[in-house]
Design goal:
mainly alpha
């Protein structure tokens, strides 16, 4: 029976994590009475900043991905080449380096606040991956759909935005969700430019409370909550728009 398998899995996981926790506790005195309860306000403030960075970055990277994905399958060779160069560059440079380049390079010249430097760096980096996801979604549409749109005399804009892209988004939704989850986790690197998001707050609490293990476990659980909610919402949307 299905519930027996799930129960067995739960028992194994509880035993594994419980045993690991016990072994660690023999050497490390946990202070859960201090962390996270005495510092919950700091954690929540950090989570709010993480959410703000992630939401703006998701929106901007999605726009970049859609425009770049269309360019990648465009009949215009120049557009295809430019989009290809963008993807190649940003998929082969570590995100940490991009954040440092944007903040200490471009950000210094144009006086970007830390927050927007992080958003721009995350958006351009993740956007390169979303370009390829959208390209794959577009190319998964049968050629007959393109031919029908051309036969109806639709413009390129009408063809893509009314017929092709809605289907491409539906096909690409699982991959897009995975990339957005990756973006939320990658936002932790904004801590290197002293943005007080969740990871940075965790660092501060670890130092103040002298409780590194507890602080980083709390941070990990909060990231897990954010990404799990996004994943759960994505599954609901997938079922809602699934082809009967």
């Amino acid at each position: 029976m299905r519930w027996v398998g799930k129960l067995s899995t739960a028992i194994i996981l509880i035993a594994a994590f419980g045993g690991m926790y016990y072994l660690i506790s023999l050497q490390y005195p946990f202070h859960w009475n201090i962390v996270p309860f005495d510092y919950i306000k700091l954690y929540l403030m950090g989570m709010l900043i993480t959410l703000e960075i992630s939401i703006f970055s998701i929106l901007l990277s999605f726009v970049i991905g859609v425009l770049g994905g269309i360019a990648r399958v465009s009949k215009n060779e120049t557009l295809r080449d430019l989009a290809g160069v963008y993807v190649t560059i940003f998929r082969n440079i570590p995100l940490l380096v991009i954040i440092l380049l944007v903040y200490y390079g471009i950000g210094t010249i144009f006086d970007f606040p830390r927050f927007w430097a992080a958003v721009i760096a995350l958006s351009t980096f993740e956007g390169a991956y979303i370009v390829e996801i959208i390209r794959g979604g577009i190319q998964s549409i049968p050629k007959a759909q393109f031919e029908t749109a051309d036969a109806l005399g639709l413009s390129e804009g009408q063809k893509f935005f009314d017929i092709i892209l809605p289907q491409a988004f539906r096909n690409a939704l699982p991959s897009l969700t995975g990339q957005f989850i990756s973006l939320i986790k990658d936002s932790s690197l904004a801590s290197v430019i002293a943005i007080e998001e969740l990871t940075q707050r965790g660092n501060e609490v670890a130092t103040m409370a002298l409780a590194s293990f507890e602080s980083y476990i709390t941070v990990a659980l909060m990231y897990f909550t954010l990404t799990y909610v996004l994943s759960f919402a994505s599954k609901i949307i997938e079922r809602r728009f699934a082809i009967p």
